[in-house]
Amino acid sequence: MAGVLDSVDSRTRLVGANRLELLMFKLHSNQLFAINVFKVQEVLRLPKLTSLPGHHPHVVGVAHLRGQAVSVINLAQAVGMPPLEPTPESNLIVTEYNSTVQAFLVGSVERIVNLNWEDIMPPPRTSGRQHYLTAITRMEDRIIEIIDVEKVLAEINPYSIALDPSQLEEEIVNAAQGMEILMVDDSPTAITQVRQTLEPLGIILHTATNGKKGLQQLQAWADAGEDVPNKLLMLITDAEMPEMDGYSLTTAVREDKRLSDTFVVLHTSMSGNFNKAMVQKVGCDDFLSKFQPKLLAELVERRVREKAGLPAPQ
Length: 314
Known about the structure:
Strand 10 and strand 11 (about 140-145) form a beta hairpin. By secondary structure, the chain is an alpha/beta fold. It has helices at about 1-10, 75-80, 150-155, 170-175, 190-200, 210-225, 230, 245-255, 270-280, 295-310, and strands spanning about 20-25, 30-35, 40-45, 50, 60-65, 70-75, 90-95, 100-105, 110-115, 135-140, 140-145, 180-185, 205-210, 230-235, 265-270, 285-290. The model is unreliable at about 5-15 (pLDDT under 50). It has a six-stranded mixed beta sheet. The protein has a five-stranded mixed beta sheet with strand order 9-1-2-11-10, with helices on one face. It has a five-stranded parallel beta sheet with strand order 13-12-14-15-16, with helices on both faces. The longest helix has 16 residues, at about 295-310. Helix 6 (about 210-225) packs parallel to helix 8.
């Protein structure tokens, strides 16, 4: 366990080029699951839990870690499997997603593997757990299932993502009608959240499920003679995606003269400090932590004003 902990602590600070590191673990059987190491704070044995009145059925209690009360989620139960029975031998994976800290109850924690995003594939449609998987990969003839943690958390703690039309300025709504955004993200949950937030503005949302497909779409528009930076209000890209991550996508956009002036927003659930550094390194124009609809709306409003030549609000 100490070796895994040491490795997690060091590798969460890794800055790579189209690479990721996965922490592998098991739930009930020998099937391997994984999450990105960048999201992991620590791995530890299950401490004493405090019951939480009125909690969600998938939350088994609260652990007090480093002076912080952290909800513990039975991950097996959350992805549609029989719940794990908490025991002193159980493990917790403590993570940070969307600026919140939570812990997942799992079985055995295996090891960390370093992979290229090109080795990560969408989950097969025939997979029974496909609903809760964001991707799969293969290693030593074994399939590793990468869990869509964003979906798990959205189901446990849903929050309002739609904008109140009465709070939108009429000139912004009128100017935004028909403007276009390309969103590149492998999480259907994230795409749905952004789509519902932008719906009152009448913005057309194009989508792609990974950086490679997103780049192909951008290049196809450019090949057809379209002025992509002028066509798009912005490109919103996730950081972690199969085949090509958001950092590599941004680099490719900046290196293509036809695309280089596109306004690029990094939109991710990874830690803000890390991503702010990566924004500067790869040349994104802005950064948004998932999922904050108010901040997304403010950024879109600012871009609409710039594109439509509207004055800044007084």
